[in-house]
Amino acid sequence: MREINSRVGAILSIDNNVVRLLGYGVYEGDFFQEDISSYVLSESELEFFKSLSPEDKIEYQDKHIPSFMKNPRIRLDNGDVVWGRECWWGPEEEIKKRIKNAAKITNVKLVRDSNGTCVGVVEIT
Questions:
Q1: Who's near 65: CB < 8 A, 6+ residues apart?
Q2: Residue 107, C-beta contacts closer than 8 angstroms, at least 6 positions apart
Q3: Which of the 8 DSSP states describes residue 33?
Q4: d(CA 50, CA 48)
């Protein structure tokens, strides 16, 4: 069982022993992603959902959105949010073990549009 606020690592990809690392942070729980909400909510439901405060959104999703529509949310140490569906992630120590012998580790960041949808990746130093 994943514990909320547990330390985790997030990897975008590993190819030819080169790791594209999103970073380390905390697992915040499973949440409904607003950037994919238009696929599962009607237009009026989506408008209502977007008008809610962050606290009310959590209550609304717990009561009205099936668990299979929720996704693990990871808040990285730099403040960025990545979703479980966007990366390979797990306990921080396991991720560190997994990548310790990589030929190269490249730190990357997801680029998002105004809706929060990932539209690209940039390398960071």
A1: 32, 40
A2: 21, 22, 23, 123, 124, 125
A3: -
A4: 6
| Alpha-carbon distance values, 11 to 1, 66, 89 (Å) | 20, 27, 6
The pTM of the full predicted model, rounded to 2 decimals, is: 0.79
Residues written for the chain: 125
Of 77, 96, 95, 74, the C-alpha closest to 85 is 74
Q: Which residue has the tokens 């990545």?
A: 82
Beta strand spans in the chain (E): 7-15, 18-32, 70-76, 81-83, 88-91, 104-112, 118-123
**55-104 pLDDT, tens digit each:** 888 788 778 777 667 889 999 999 999 999 899 999 999 999 999 999 99
